[in-house]
Amino acid sequence: MMYSKKSFTFIEIMVATLLFAIVLGPMIFSIGMFNKLARISNDFSVVSLAAQSKIDEMSVYDYSQLANDFDNETFDVPGLNNPSDGSENGLIEVEESNGLYDVKVTISWSSMGRDYSRTFNTTFVLKG
């Protein structure tokens, strides 16, 4: 007597489910990593734009007043979480030496349980 097979056995379903899980697991992990990298990349873009904005603001300023008006100025960067110590995101430091103004813009932030910091340097020359 011969039986015709019209459905899957329990073992076949379990093997198919196992194979599906083996393939799907790393894909889900990869999607999570891509999201994390995208957020970090976005944060670095925001930081670069904020630092460039501060440097542009100073470039149209009277250079002889840079040290007086901007040295040790702190500022917040919209769109970034403050560092874990609760301080503001940005710090500007200006050092003057013989008509040269070395400007350092440091931005710190916290993202996904980690603290990050980036420093941007430029020099302004007082003409005259």
Unreliably modeled segments: none
The biggest sheet, with number of strands, parallel, antiparallel or mixed sense and barrel status, is:
4 strands, antiparallel
Helix content: 40-55%
- Give the helices and strands as they follow along the chain: HHEEEE
Tally of extended strands?
Answer: 4
Measured by DSSP, the beta-strand proportion falls in 25-35%
Number of domains: 1
Number of helices: 2
Q: Give the terminus-to-terminus CA distance.
A: 108 Å
| Nearest-integer average pLDDT | 87
Query: Radius of gyration from the CA trace?
Result: 28 Å
The coarse silhouette is: rod-shaped
- What structural category do the secondary elements indicate? alpha+beta
Question: Top keywords for this entry?
Answer:
128 residues; 4 strands; rod-shaped
Plain-language structure description:
With 128 residues, this protein is α+β, with helices and mostly antiparallel strands. The chain has one domain. It is 43% helix and 27% strand. The protein contains two helices and four strands. A four-stranded antiparallel beta sheet has the order 1-2-3-4. The longest helix is centred in the N-terminal third of the chain and has 50 residues, at 10-59.
Please provide a brief summary of the model:
With 128 residues, the protein is α+β, with helices and mostly antiparallel strands. The protein is built from 2 helices and 4 strands; from the N terminus they run ααββββ. The radius of gyration is 28 Å and the shape is rod-shaped.
